[in-house]
Amino acid sequence: MNLILLAPEEIHHDRLACLRDPRRLRHLKEVHRARVGDVLTLGVAGGGIGRGELTLLSDDEARFTFDGLDTPPPPPLPVHLVLALPRPRMLARSLEHVTAMGVKQVTLLHTRRVEKSYWQSPELDPVKIHEHLVLGLEQARDTVMPEVNLAKGFRPFIDERLPELLTQRRGLLAHPGMPQACPTGLTEPVTLLIGPEGGFIPYEVERMLEAGCEGIHLGPRILRVETAVVALLARLF
Amino acid sequence: MNLILLAPEEIHHDRLACLRDPRRLRHLKEVHRARVGDVLTLGVAGGGIGRGELTLLSDDEARFTFDGLDTPPPPPLPVHLVLALPRPRMLARSLEHVTAMGVKQVTLLHTRRVEKSYWQSPELDPVKIHEHLVLGLEQARDTVMPEVNLAKGFRPFIDERLPELLTQRRGLLAHPGMPQACPTGLTEPVTLLIGPEGGFIPYEVERMLEAGCEGIHLGPRILRVETAVVALLARLF
């Protein structure tokens, strides 16, 4: 928690913040070992960042005072990430990684090699997803919550949503064996598609290439999804 | 397990492999759902890679026949990674990530913000470390085991080992706030130093810069160690 992310309703008179949830209170005490008088980084969801002084820390409340939260959050990555739904624990970690790196649009996609049971995982509960996004934002000192959409059918996604995602965006399909090495230093908007463990099947690759995506690869090494997604984002932007 | 990593002593007459350990047998059955006649990728530790046919799969043994394991493993990254010892679970994942990406030299370093208890973790048992390295190699279809060294004192490391690590290697110190952005597309040998959660302390940064390291950063976002290490390796090489 390199930033304490505040909901707008936790802020009073533009200079006082009160928080009461057990997770952040515990973190303040156990990880920050915070004491009254400490100055920590605060941010308001969707808004600015600043420094605030801890004025009270009790069992059920922490209070900060600050002058203004007016530093803008770090810039987002210009990417819409389309990720074949990973298995639950890897989903949780991948959401934290990509949120910390600045991704603001995520679509979780069903493909042939996604196990159907993954769609029943409690990790897909919006409350759980929100928790992982908050952890990613707090880590990276960001305040802007990503949007996460579910696309539970591959064909409807290809027919109805992908064309729209490729309007004024470069589509990049990351898949082992594609002809082009992952480009670097991009600044234009990108839709980045990443397959599941075991990869996209040939039919899926074909459909995405037909839709206008360029196939890219990360070299001869096959990486786990959570490694590949970080490596791709780090190289692309 | 995209490659079945064989010890030299598991290979007989250059064309037959027998394996008996429960982990790989279980993986063959439960993940690969392998059946006699299936053709899978095999590699011999420290050596080549090839395809082999499963000729027997019982409760306590699997046998493969193959013509030759003569495809070379993927090229390594020209990097010696010096990583402040992460907390145990993050160490395990980081070792798998960096092994999959092709790192062959790892030094785990004590720094001021490394909790001393981490050095007592069972994850540092050479047998446990070896397990994570094997998982990384199997993931990336590599056969060459990384070397992992422990440097339990910061000053002895700086005085005795770092100078040697910087002989004919470019030293890069990854630390938030350093002046230079992480370079890309390097081909020369690098020693890459990455701090713990909470970062190196100013004294440590100073000593590493004095020793000849260049300070680099990954932008305004503070990433978890396991995210940062993958992002740095992906950008650098």
UniProtKB/TrEMBL annotation, chains A, B:
It is an enzyme of class 2 (transferase). It catalyses: uridine(1498) in 16S rRNA + S-adenosyl-L-methionine = N(3)-methyluridine(1498) in 16S rRNA + S-adenosyl-L-homocysteine + H(+). The keyword Glycosyltransferase does not apply. Keywords: Cytoplasm, Methyltransferase, rRNA processing, S-adenosyl-L-methionine, Transferase. Transmembrane segments: none annotated. Pfam families: Methyltrans_RNA. It comes from the Bacteria. GO terms for molecular function: rRNA (uridine-N3-)-methyltransferase activity. Residues 74-236 form the Ribosomal RNA small subunit methyltransferase E methyltransferase domain. One of its GO terms (cellular component) is cytoplasm. InterPro entries: Alpha/beta_knot_MTases, RsmE, RsmE_MTase_dom, tRNA_m1G_MTases_N. One of its GO terms (biological process) is rRNA base methylation. It is found in: Cytoplasm. The keyword Cytoplasm applies. Its EC number is 2.1.1.193. Specifically methylates the N3 position of the uracil ring of uridine 1498 (m3U1498) in 16S rRNA. Acts on the fully assembled 30S ribosomal subunit. This is Ribosomal RNA small subunit methyltransferase E. The lineage of its organism: Bacteria, Pseudomonadati, Pseudomonadota, Gammaproteobacteria, Oceanospirillales.
